[in-house]
Automatic annotation (TrEMBL), chain A:
One of its GO terms (molecular function) is D-arabinono-1,4-lactone oxidase activity. The lineage of its organism: Bacteria, Bacillati, Actinomycetota, Actinomycetes, Kitasatosporales. One of its GO terms (cellular component) is membrane. It comes from the Bacteria. This is FAD-binding oxidoreductase. PROSITE patterns: FAD_PCMH (PS51387). Residues 14-182 form the FAD-binding PCMH-type domain. Keywords: Oxidoreductase.
Automatic annotation (TrEMBL), chain B:
It is an enzyme of class 1 (oxidoreductase). Belongs to the short-chain dehydrogenases/reductases (SDR) family. Keywords: Oxidoreductase. Residues 9-192 form the Ketoreductase domain. Coiled coil: none annotated. One of its GO terms (molecular function) is oxidoreductase activity. It comes from Streptomyces galbus. It holds the Pfam family adh_short. This is Decaprenylphospho-beta-D-erythro-pentofuranosid-2-ulose 2-reductase.
Length: 451, 251
């Protein structure tokens, strides 16, 4: 099977490490890859959208799972699909939308694999009602450290360790998903502006129950009275009768043809994203948003995945790369959230496209990130002076408020804080010690945080 | 593992009593470093350095290491790497010698060369191989501006650092694509025990300033770091000064 030695990073392009990239195309090859991965172990990798070092394994093996890209079976009546772990959500949308089904959860990019979606237990704009991705997994096949394949179903310890387990319990080979029925491939979207953080939180709290999907883009560079100003976009799949009669969309309501612009150039210099340029971008983004607009029809790509339109958009940060920081604090900790937003605004972090969202019930995965509360995600250039110490300070505030940071985005958390943030960490470690005593599955993230 | 900002969790110092190395270690321990190995000749100073870093919260171990005995490097460093990954190796040992004395006493001059150059070649190669097996890590080599152009006043030391500097640059190129990062640090005159009593050169700096520059270089994955940074310009000018003039410069 194809193998090469390569320098591997996450989407944030920080902390590269070198590994043997192995691309199994069959289950037999996957089993062989795990059996032969050597003293420094291996870790499965999908499309590399985790921001930090979750899918890196210095000196060892990285299993590129995108070779297992078959959609095996679709139940078009019951709305389930059985597919290989390397199938992307983009591919699933291409296949499923014409049949009137949609993926149960999609993050801000379609270019993640099903295996990665379970390993990071990703969430989307519908978390407040639908929960994380793993809640919609009916079963999965897991290749464990002893080289055997077992079927894992929800409600078992192994499932709960694997959902959000960052690939450290084994290699997911296939998954069966419960899908979401849709009448059209368009979204019906309400947009509104919030003048500041309190206004934003009030609007989200009051209105989220009415929408399947909800998220707010927040301007973290706005200061003073405008601190936390935001644009809310909320909506649901448009029903067929919402499409204008006689329109092209009405004739082909389940069409899925997302466009893509040319990729970002390979060698952009660092330092393009400054306070000034990002501030101007944020100002424009806020001003061009309508104060209030209802029932606008948007494509799936425009509503869920605006950044997918520019392939390799992560290159705009230059070779220094960037850090994404995402945390959640529980409801009732709004003061902590306010203080953190104030600190970020005061620090003038050049962060564009920061998002704030309300989570629903916690998910069963032991290391799953979501819990009921407010989650904020922001991108910051890694070269920003003093950023490390600043994020450490935010970690302390998050932990003190009983919150946590998201492992799929992390590239810098102080390991000592992890146990407080993830109370089931000891269970996870114990299960791994039993399931994988030789430590076959290991990643740079696992080494850094002693997972 | 290093984090997104290049901060290491484990550190191996070769030359465990070096003031620059200890200033760097203190700085890194205050951020992410939890495991520190201090390699050096067993001495009260080495134990004292370990005690001090422990007080800062690190898990510190000392290991007997002699730059002048290259035959033992493989074994000594092998044991350290066998205990777990090392994210950062700081090659910090070196002696200044006494130029006037060493010119009269060639065996003493050879000792400077053997420590600063031959010892570093040996330890550098051993550490590089171990880092390469890990697939990650940085090797930071303390060179000196003295190696940039030989000066009448300290050409024995300077030539040993020139050799070390060239070696480290080549090693960095050889390790491209292996996940291992080699950074050459060229401080100017640093106020330490080693330079105590010597007339201070212009642009003199401190171990703490060198430590700060090293932390920044790790974050940027720099290949060369000058301390202070302006020395890069100064030295590139001095390099082109005619010999007859350079010889008479009061530096």
């Amino acid at each position: 099977m194809p193998a090469e030695t390569a320098s591997v990073t996450g989407w944030g392009r920080t902390a590269p490490s070198v590994a043997r990239l192995i691309r199994p195309r069959t289950y037999e090859e996957a089993v062989a890859a795990v059996r032969e991965c050597g003293a420094r172990g291996g870790i499965p990798r999908g499309l590399g959208r985790a921001y930090g070092d979750a899918a890196q394994n210095a000196g060892g093996a990285v299993f590129d799972m995108t070779g297992l890209d078959r959609v095996h079976a679709i139940d078009a009546d019951g709305g389930t699909v059985l597919c290989g772990a390397g199938v992307s959500l983009h591919r699933l949308m291409e296949v499923l939308l014409p049949l009137g089904w949609f993926v149960p959860v999609t993050p801000g990019t379609r270019y993640v694999t099903v295996g990665g979606a379970i390993g990071a237990d990703i969430h989307g704009k519908n978390h407040h009602g639908s929960g994380s991705f793993s809640r919609h997994v009916l079963a999965l096949e897991l290749l464990t450290a002893d080289g055997t394949v077992q079927t894992v179903r929800p409600g078992t310890d192994l499932f709960d360790a694997t959902a959000g387990g960052m690939g450290l319990t084994g290699v997911i080979l296939t998954a069966t998903l419960q899908l979401q029925p849709v009448q059209t491939s368009l979204m019906s979207v309400d947009t509104e502006r919030a003048a500041d953080l309190d206004d934003l939180m009030a609007r989200l709290t009051a209105g989220d129950d009415r929408y399947r999907y909800s998220v707010a883009w927040i301007d973290l560079l706005a200061r003073g009275a405008a601190t936390g100003r935001a644009v809310l976009t909320r909506g649901d799949h448009a029903p067929l009768d919402a499409l204008p009669a006689g329109s092209r969309a009405r004739r082909d309501p389940l069409a899925f043809r997302p466009g893509r612009l040319p990729a970002a150039p390979r060698h952009l210099p660092g330092g393009l994203l400054t306070r000034r340029s990002v501030g101007a971008f944020n100002e424009l983004w806020y001003r061009r948003a309508p104060r209030l607009r209802r029932d606008e029809l948007q494509s799936i790509a425009a509503f869920f995945h605006p950044l997918d339109g520019v392939p390799h958009w992560n290159r705009i940060y230059g070779r220094g790369g960037f850090v994404q920081y995402q945390f959640v604090v529980e409801y009732g900790q709004e003061d902590a959230l306010r203080r953190i937003v104030d600190r970020i605004a005061a620090r003038r972090c050049p962060s564009f496209l920061a998002v704030l969202k309300r989570f629903g019930d916690a998910d069963p995965g032991w290391l799953s990130f979501p819990r009921p509360g407010w989650t904020l995600a922001l991108d910051v250039p890694a070269a920003l002076p003093g950023l490390g110490a600043f994020l450490d300070e935010l970690d302390e505030r998050v932990a003190a408020a009983g919150g946590r940071v998201y492992l799929a985005k992390d590239s810098r958390l102080r390991p000592e804080l992890l146990a407080a943030m993830y109370p089931r960490l000891d269970d996870f470690r114990a299960l791994r010690a039993e399931l994988d005593p030789r430590g076959v599955f290991v990643s740079d993230l696992a080494r850094r945080l002693s997972l | 593992m290093k984090d997104a900002f290049g901060l290491p969790q484990s550190l191996l110092v070769l030359g465990g009593t070096s003031e620059i190395a200890l200033a760097t270690a203190r700085r890194l321990v205050a951020r992410r470093t939890r495991t520190v190995w201090l390699a050096g000749r067993p001495s009260p100073a080495l134990d004292e350095a370990a005690r001090e870093l422990r007080a800062h919260g690190a898990d510190v171990r000392t290991v007997a290491f002699d730059a002048l005995d290259p035959d033992t490097h493989e074994e000594v460093l092998g044991k350290v790497f066998a205990e777990g990954d090392i994210d950062l190796v700081l090659l910090a040992f070196g002696v200044l010698g006494d130029q006037a004395h060493d010119e009269r006493e060639p065996s003493a001059a050879v000792r400077v060369a053997r420590t600063n150059y031959i010892g570093a070649v040996s330890a550098g190669l051993v550490a590089a191989r171990a880092l390469q097996t890990q697939g990650h890590g940085s090797l930071v080599v303390l060179s000196s501006v003295a190696g940039e152009r030989a000066r009448r006043a300290n050409f024995i030391y300077g030539s040993s650092k020139a050799g070390l500097d060239a070696f480290a640059q080549g090693l960095g190129d050889a390790l491209q694509g292996t996940g291992v990062h080699v950074m050459v640090v060229r401080p100017g005159f640093v106020r330490t025990r080693m330079t105590a009593g010597l007339p201070e050169a212009p642009l003199a700096t401190t171990p703490e300033a060198v430590a700060t520059a090293i932390e920044l270089g790790l974050r940027r994955r720099s290949e060369t770091v000058w301390v202070p940074g302006v020395l890069r310009l100064v030295m590139s000018a001095l390099r082109h000064v005619p010999r007859g003039v350079f010889r008479r410069l009061p530096v």
